[in-house]
Amino acid sequence: MCCCSLPYRQLSQSFYKCKRTSCCKCHFKLAQHVKDIKHELMVKNMGRGLIMVDVVQRLGIDYAFEEEIELVLDSQYKAMDQVEDLYFVSLCFRLFRQHHYYVSADAFDKFINNKRELEIAGNSNEALMSLYEASQLRIEGEGVLDEAEFLSRQLLEERMKFLDYDQAITIRNTLSHPYHKSFARISGKHLLGNVFDNEYGKALQELATMDLTVMQIIHEKELSTFSRWWNGLGLAQELKLVRDQPLKWYMWTTALLTDPSFSEERIELAKPISLIYIIDDIFDLYGTIDELTLFTEAVNRWDIAAAEQLPDYMQKCFLSLLNITHEIGYKIYKKYGLNPIDYLKISWSKLCSAFLDESKWFFSGHLPRAEEYLNNGIVSSGVHVALVHLFFLIGDGSTREQADQLINSDASMLSSTAAILRLWDDLGSAKDENQKGHDGSYVTCYMKEHQEVSVETARKHVENMISDTWKRLNKECFSPNPYSKTFIKGCLNLARIVPLMYNYDDDQSLPQLEEYMKGMFL
């Protein structure tokens, strides 16, 4: 068998076995690069090993080195207390916490002076950037890391005035796109020009480039499959005003599931994501309150007969929802042995109920209190629906106990992710270029309650809320919990890609998302 036909995860073991040299010459080189990098990861020098772990993660190719990364971290975890250098203490803190090792913020006490102040001004730019990166993984109550973020940013911004362009842009990229809160396949681009000056630089560069090419081929095929499905569904032809954006919907799945082996799961996940957008538009652009109430009741009952009173376009959407959900549910049941339909139904019911509440507010001209709006907006974001589908598609819901815990608990990991999306969406710049209906906004509700505040003050308040929500999400992700690393990474990546999806410019376009899309396809 030619190695070209193998799953990407197996290529590093199989490229060199392939006899078809003419078609696999680059694959042979890739296999050698993988071997070289694995060797470098396993060196006994603590600093070199951890730096390599950091680099392969930033380049988005860490899935090819999972075993080696775990071995490096296991071997170095106990030695962290012996580290005195700010750069490496910060790097250790970030890597170990990110990989669910217990690490206390007390690790930074050694940099606090007798006045209980963080003393870091004499450190290098690299050390300050490392500290800034580490501060992004803080949780509530870690005041030393709040101070670390503020001071490291302040010092770096001051130093940028005296640096050449390349050095300044490296710092600017770190401050604007810290690794923990950025999507690796985007932020990794800024790394390419800075890490390839050692003996393994060329291997890393070629491996990252080949990985991108392989992923582009995979994404092209997946998008083609999903687009055929979407066009065959016919909802865009039936509902002329709804968003028709299969590429954008598919892009969400590339963030939630980065491992190339999850190809089928990305395609299936894109389907409910597309329906979140379509049902949102039906509530916002089409239905009367009476029609939307009937639609919500039909979803709550999950009964075809309940849809008979609906307008034709709503019936078609409702039937599509039922069919798609049952198709996905059957695939999950066939693969993992647990029927998720009841759990998927609950997530759709909660979403439509939240949409209905918003419609009632805006049809009546009533603005709710900011807290009430946000609590409902967390549900109407659609994040819960997407993540519940993700949970079952990757096999996390293999037992009813696991599934019950996700659906019946507060599932704060999901809610924190949803809050980040909702607050970003409501900052004011996030006005969809094709969306012409009524839009709610936390900023608007907040300013109604606090009539003395300016728009700038309200926006700053929302930015602070996003920062605090990230602290809660960090705690939920890095404290002991029943979720797999794949699911946790999916939650984090959803939060990380939100700025790309909602950071509109003055022309109501999404330049960062457009750049990302260009890099994802051939």
From TrEMBL:
Any one GO biological process: terpenoid biosynthetic process
Keywords assigned: Lyase, Magnesium, Metal-binding
Keyword Metal-binding: yes
Reported cofactor(s): Mg(2+)
Domain Terpene synthase metal-binding residue range list: 233-471
Domain Terpene synthase N-terminal per the UniProt entry, residue ranges: 30-161
GO MF assignments: magnesium ion binding; terpene synthase activity
Keyword Metal-binding: yes
Tree of life domain: Eukaryota
Pfam family, one: Terpene_synth_C
Protein name as it appears in the record: Uncharacterized protein
Organism field: Daucus carota subsp. sativus
Organism lineage: Eukaryota, Viridiplantae, Streptophyta, Embryophyta, Tracheophyta
